[in-house]
Design brief:
With 266 residues, the chain is α+β, with helices and mostly antiparallel strands. The protein is built from 7 helices and 13 strands. The chain starts with a strand and ends in a 6-residue tail after the last strand.
């Protein structure tokens, strides 16, 4: 059986003219996992995400362990991976001054050549998140994240992930950017708009993205989405699949059915 890799994904949110918007990336077609699919920033845990010397503001890993349904070390890894991947893939850093210092609660700007060099070093694993934060005198802001969902790739897949989904507001002063070499498009879309494109066959997505966008569509703004986190611990979702005359469906443990749309030829 294929090993299951722990991973973290972040639903990065902002309030737009049409309501709640979410930052979405279209993965390049050559990617070994979910190529051509629209998804959120995220990826697998780096072993160094468990570094215990990372400066930390907000709920501690023990509290996150209760929310995420895992042990304390895994919780630390998942929260750090969420922050790291959001910076690597969207150029947004959920960090600020350590507790008791005079610096900004959240770093207001992470653009510029020096920041970009450090982002690239994270991508190549020359630098860990703990090392980046220490060099900048910053602390990880776990209080900016909310637990949102927990999905596990089914056993028949060749690449499997045990993924916690987090929600976070875009920090004031920062801009999400198309910086990831793993994506060929980055967009801010309303959940309803993204789902409409998916159903039209122009924006293919995997079931977790479809389902979490449908959940987000119920919220009018960022504040309500962050306040609407599910109760702890998150219940893991591992879909099964059914081929029926009207198409292929992902079936969730609670009976919810998600119709999988075949993308239009490019």
């Amino acid at each position: 059986m294929t090993a299951v890799r722990p991973a973290a994904t972040v639903l990065l949110l902002r309030d737009g003219a049409a309501g709640l918007e979410v930052h979405l990336l279209r993965r390049t077609r050559g990617m070994p996992f979910a190529g051509g699919m629209t998804a959120y920033p995220g990826g697998g845990v780096d072993p160094r995400d468990g570094d215990t010397d990372v400066a930390w503001v907000g709920p501690r890993p023990a509290v996150w362990a209760d929310s995420l349904g895992c042990d304390e070390r895994v919780a630390r890894e998942l929260v750090c991976a969420a922050v790291r991947e959001t910076f690597e893939e969207a150029g947004v850093l959920l960090a600020g001054a350590p507790a008791g210092s005079d610096g900004p609660d959240v770093v207001p700007d992470v653009s510029g050549e020096e920041w970009e060099a450090q982002r690239q070093a994270l991508l190549t694993r020359e630098l860990s998140l703990a090392e980046l934060l220490a060099a900048r005198g910053l602390a990880l802001r776990s209080d900016l994240l909310r637990p949102f969902a927990h999905w596990i790739t089914p056993p028949q897949e060749t690449r499997r992930y045990d993924t916690r989904f987090f929600a976070a507001a875009l920090p004031a002063g920062q801009e999400a950017r198309d910086v990831s070499g793993e994506a060929d498009e980055a967009s801010w879309l309303t959940p309803a708009g993204a789902l409409a494109e998916m159903r039209a066959g122009t924006r293919p997505m995997l079931p977790p993205t479809i389902h979490t966008l449908d959940q987000l569509a119920a919220f009018p703004d960022v504040a309500s989405a962050l306040a609407g986190s599910p109760p702890a611990p998150l219940s893991p979702i591992m879909p099964t699949f059914a081929d029926e005359p009207d198409g292929r469906w992902a079936v969730l443990p609670d009976g919810t059915r998600i119709r999988l749309v075949v993308p239009l030829p490019s």
